[in-house]
Fold this protein.
Amino acid sequence: MTSKVRSLPLVLWLAMLLFCLLVIMQTRFVADMSAFMPKTPNERQQLLVDQLRDGIIARLIMIGIEGGEAAERAQLSRELANKLRDTQLFVGVQNGDAATQERDRAYLFDNRYLISPGVTAERFTAEGMHTAIGNSIEALYGNAGLMFKQLLPKDPTGEAMQLLEQFAGESQPRSIDGVWASRDGNRALLLAHTLAAGSDTDAQADTLAAIHLTFDTLPHSAGTKLVMSGTSVFSVSSRNLIEGEVSRLATASIVLVIALLLAVYRSVTLLALGLLPVVSGALVGIAAVSLGFGQVHGLTLGFGTTLIGEAVDYSIYYFLQRSGATAPSSFWRTIRIGVLTSIAGFAALLFSGFPGLAQLGLYSISGLITAALVTRYVLPIVMPQHVTLRDLSTTGERLDRIIERISRLRWAVIALALIAGSTILFHSDAIWNRQLSALSPISKADQRLDSELRSDMGGTDMRYMAALTAPTGELALQKAEQANEVLQSLVKNKIIGSFNSPALVLPSIARQRSRQASIPDAEQARTRLAQSLKELPIKADRLQDF
């Protein structure tokens, strides 16, 4: 019976490790920085989190083709766009080719009476049509006269031109050989909208790999290469970089700890036993975070290096106690105090409003408690009876003498602490970095490429984002239309440069029906058209398509 009771901790420990391994095998590891956003954000913070996770910006990939001749880049752009559209990985792929441009123009032209802000009941009276057609005729003498001449028979009131003027302030990419190109003409451009959510870094990684693989299958010269940028590219790059850094740092820490312990213990057996609490704590910590949060962030694993530094002390204390250097009562009291103080410190992270920090807290607390319990109940069972710890008394005496000499400099330490505190107090505004970009591990070169591609694409310098919420999409569009009136007045008064709104290209149903009601029936249109053309240099039979 005594033997069974003695082996019970060992059985429970093995069962716990098996359970943790099963949980870890099903765990999803992530590296997106949204884990370090507030858990219960306010409306402004929630807007940012949503955009980082699933917004349109998080799904856009800017693609550039560099090297070779302009004709080759244009051909590669067309072939790559067609192949990517066939993969079903994208909502859309655009490169400014003629077919896509024509399809977009046809869509806007066919729906011009629903989208054009100039469509009102007054516009389709005889007087209104007279003024509108007169303006269209005057436009024939301008720089865009050829375009007006083609549109005039079908659109004499100029609704299509109203739409063009509405987007006249939008910067457009340069076009070379029928596709988008950079301003200097040395790079062909494509814009891909992924089907996968921006927060799904695994799917985004697969999408990026598919783009590279598709490009590699296309025949191209040796000097031609593919470059990409965008939020999804940064997300995947950040994850890979974080995972790589965590792996390297964790490996380096483990190697250093093992080397130090092996140098001290001079025993592989003691080394393996000393690492049992550490490994157990790490496995339990990962499993606890996985069960508590549904996923584990890469930075949480990186925090395991701190766990190694503290948990390995428990086995060291135990070995000292077994060798007789420490009284048993003193040993366990030291362990309890160490664990309790660590829990008190990490508890602040556990209740943090940031999920990433809360993961760190749970990982550390569960890991340290496990390490202490394994030291207390498992090590005494698995440790051989005749294992002796190397005599380190000489080394300890030397360290004591060094510490005693250093203690004489305690006033210098106090002075340095006061200087550091004063620096923080008087330069608090300059010391703290509140920019979210400071958390990004993206290199300067990648940031420069992103800036170049955005500029080549004609992307606007979006400094502010406004969100209008409503119970339905229709009500949200109506609110956006009301906001447009205010924003347009701000643009007119040169208070803001420009703005974009979904209501500009997708009016609310109420607005569309109002514009439909403004359009006369065929018989009324003929009568009013005939009246409106008096004193204008154009005959009604030229406008039969209208």
